[in-house]
Amino acid sequence: xxxxxxxxxxxxxxxxxxxxxxxxxxxxxxxxxxxxxxxxxxxxxxxxxxxxxxxxxxxxxxxxxxxxxxxxxxxxxxxxxxxxxxxxxxxxxxxxxxxxxxxxxxxxxxxxxxxxxxxxxxxxxxxxxxxxxxxxxxxxxxxxxxxxxxxxxxxxxxxxxxxxxxxxxxxxxxxxxxxxxxxxxxxxxxxxxxxxxxxxxxxxxxxxxxxxxxxxxxxxxxxxxxxxxxxxxxxxxxxxxxxxxxxxxxxxxxxxxxxxxxxxxxxxxxxxxxxxxxxxxxxxxxxxxxxxxxxxxxxxxxxxxxxxxxxxxxxxxxxxxxxxxxxxxxxxxxxxxxxxxxxxxxxxxxxxxxxxxxxxxx
Amino acid sequence: xxxxxxxxxxxxxxxxxxxxxxxxxxxxxxxxxxxxxxxxxxxxxxxxxxxxxxxxxxxxxxxxxxxxxxxxxxxxxxxxxxxxxxxxxxxxxxxxxxxxxxxxxxxxxxxxxxxxxxxxxxxxxxxxxxxxxxxxxxxxxxxxxxxxxxxxxxxxxxxxxxxxxxxxxxxxxxxxxxxxxxxxxxxxxxxxxxxxxxxxxxxxxxxxxxxxxxxxxxxxxxxxxxxxxxxxxxxxxxxxxxxxxxxxxxxxxxxxxxxxxxxxxxxxxxxxxxxxxxxxxxxxxxxxxxxxxxxxxxxxxxxxxxxxxxxxxxxxxxxxxxxxxxxxxxxxxxxxxxxxxxxxxxxxxxxxxxxxxxxxxx
DNA sequence: AGGAAAATTGAATCGTAAC
DNA sequence: GGTTACGATTCAATTTTCC
Lengths: 362, 362
Prior knowledge:
The first copy, chain A, is an alpha/beta fold. Chain A folds into two domains: 8-261, Vaccinia Virus protein VP39 (Rossmann fold, 3-Layer(aba) Sandwich), CATH 3.40.50; 275-359. In chain A, 29% of the residues lie in helices and 20% in strands. In chain A, the strands form three sheets. Chain A has an eight-stranded mixed β-sheet, with helices on both faces. In chain A, strands 9-10-11-12 form a four-stranded antiparallel β-sheet, covered by helices on one side. In chain A, helix 5 crosses helix 6 (221-228) and helix 6 packs parallel to helix 7 (240-252). Chain A starts with 7 loop residues before the first strand and ends in a 7-residue tail after the last helix. The interface between A and B is large, with 47 and 51 residues. Chain A binds a DNA duplex through residues 34-41, 43-47, 49, 51-54, 59, 92-95, 119-130, 132-133, 136, 172-177, 179, 187, 190-191, 294.
């Protein structure tokens, strides 16, 4: 672990570069391999604009056998690099994920979960010929059935408003300022993953100081999030433009403080804090008006900690779901309110609470 | 289609029984194959009660190769039985779905979507060692890449509050009265699928009168829902207890009325009416001036139903495309004209026509 | 400046009836 | 079966432009 090229983005072919790294040197691997999309013609939106699809050479394979051989090779190397108790995450779509999963099983990986990344804002199906392809799949696997892999259960539970994190994650695409762009203002990389996805992956399955490998680094999301979260990374990428941009991105990233990095202890569950306790304590007065990020819906806080909006009344979660028509809703992150002229998330109450243990309402 | 054992639950081994059915006889197939779950020992809840998992003999395979061979055999038969434009649905979990999907692709099936069934009430992860396994995956595939498969897009959109249906479906498990039970009140089948799931599958990909095959019929959900929705079924099951229960279940089921079975029709299935027929009937006089929404271009209606603008002459579609430089154009929604002081879309002619069948111009 | 309307965009395997 | 021409089809989130 001494001569590892830590916290670097290595330039080279993925398989070849992995071969130069020592056995059992990685605590975790995140891999976003080519999807082998096999797009045929150009696709237009109903307004006649052309969809900018993935037509890069790196996503072209002659046939399934060629793709499988490539997949088997890099996955075998990945398994060799993983520590005995390490885990690997591989992301894909229906075009390739079945081949990925089957080959992983054949190589001896032990699948722990398949995770569905439900996209908040997927591209629609413009021709009305299929269901909106609104998700991608992550396979999370241990090196083998006997691995004592790491899973930060309590941290995941805390991230999910104190109920077990499910295998379906609802996260937005990488857009706006987060998306890296070239000199012409066009997206640098066609498939840049959102930081929120890597954040959850790393928090779930690694600890501070762990070494994370990304064999298909691309725009460097894994590397950047590893640095932010106090993990080490080894990233591999072959395209010089991506490497240059990713290095600048990592450079600009700052590591969080140890305090911020202290995740929920795995031993015992932190007492769940009901929303109503904040109202009781006057930290959020009854009568306060909450609204969502877009200010499309609003509701008023009642003295018992319920929300009222029109004829509806319910918990912060129920009301968020009801007013948006969603099956469920995390009220802590859904609602916002105004405080000292600023708009703040409801979740700030819990954040501040955890830093001030004297106000324990457990 | 004459000697098919329609609307019966056949007793026998799945592959062998399929072999006796003729090529291209099934419009749709729904398959819920064994999951190859490799549960090591009993699973206990925190209160020490035993979780009633899948441990039936039919779900045991020696290794991946054995499972793959079985899978390849029944999927090959399924493909033979499918009509040219038929589709197949296969459901699985991370234990087996990657092998299913890869083999389907190898056999020539063309995947249309992978659908995530998000369970409203999944079993929690009692040990806290993984994410709650809260979904199963359905693979929806056509017989091949050139299939003109059926997808009732408008019906799915209507089911989803008029936004197109996504690839993630949120549906409850099969519980309560819907769950078949034996004489002891215990669940009859370990993996009985909810009727809502089959309802959506059948409404999405079949029409009234279609023939649906279920090679792993189990508790008969596919057969029951096919009968209710006016589809024919051929079901295969080898376990006598399941067959008996499923036959009684189907018997008790009633077919909905034709009225209740009417779904939102797709526009492309409504008979076409040539634009010229409206001119012939005088519903739109020759000489009428058409213009686009922004009144940027205009054209005059000729007696033969063509449009003229400057030196150009052509159909409503060709002219719309030509005058805007677009590669194609739907003239019906592109053009407007003035009627009784109001600006109306050209498409109003077809709308009014369909409401006044006496004006039949067929 | 501020608010409203318009434009942009995303890992996409995205026609078919009629002649 | 091949060819031609019709004509169906989009959601959410940002960002940019317009008033």
